[in-house]
Amino acid sequence: MVYKGACYCKAVEYEIDISSPDEARTSLCHCKNCKRFFGTAFGLTTKVPVKAFAYTAESAKPTVHEADNGSGSLLHREFCSKCGSGILEYGAAAAKDFRYVMTGTLEDPGALPPKGEFFCIYREKWMPEIPGIFHKDRLKE
Questions:
Q1: What is the distance between the alpha carbons of residues 5 and 79, in angstroms, rounded to a whole number?
Q2: 46 Cβ neighbours under 8 A, 6+ residues apart
Q3: How big is the chain by its Cα radius of gyration, in Å?
Q4: DSSP output for the chain
Q5: pLDDT tens digits for the chain (141 residues)?
Q6: How much is the pTM?
Q7: Among 28, 63, 30, residue whose Cα is nearest residue 46
Q8: What's the CA gap between 72 and 67, in Å, rounded?
Q9: Contact at 8 Å (CB) between 56 and 70?
Q10: Sheet strands side by side (includes 53-55)
Q11: Residues 99, 46: Cα–Cα separation, whole Å
Q12: Neighbours of 94 (CB within 10 A)
């Protein structure tokens, strides 16, 4: 199954090629870092194997930003230099194995619905818990 995506201006395009939706895990993150980067009350990413993600041949090269994520770990983010849309992110520990794609950049974001929520202790009080998925107050529980 191939899932296509792009930034807002479509300069940066990519494909995710997985054999089953079970190979992907979409999740919400309520940490302060994701709130700031996404500019909303939570981040929404889809975790895929690194070998499943590829920029298309026609795609512009994304801009890379790396910084400490606040816990001493290096966080790598790629985004479009023209429109500013975030495309993906990954931490140092996941670099060899996974990419966390910004779910809203998928052509059909609903095709890979959320399976869980992280950092629920930081969920905004007005936001309800999503039923039927896992909920973790911290990353490692």
A1: 13
A2: 16, 24, 25, 26, 100, 101, 103, 106, 112
A3: 15
A4: -EEEEE-TTSSSEEEEE-SSGGG-EEEEE-SHHHHHHHTSSSEEEEEEEGGGEEE-TTPPPPEEEEEE-SSS-EEEEEE-TTT--EEEEEEGGGTTTEEEEEGGGBSSGGGS-EEEEE-GGGS-TTSPPPTTSEE-SSS--
A5: 999 999 999 999 999 999 999 999 999 999 998 999 999 999 999 999 999 999 999 999 999 999 877 777 889 999 999 999 999 999 988 999 999 999 999 999 999 999 999 999 999 999 999 999 999 998 665
A6: 0.93
A7: 28
A8: 9
A9: no
A10: 2-6, 13-17, 53-55
A11: 8
A12: 16
What residues contact residue 36 under an 8 Å CB cut-off, 6+ apart?
none
* Residue 8 contacts residue 83 (beta carbons within 8 Å): yes
Name the residue with tokens 């790396």: 66
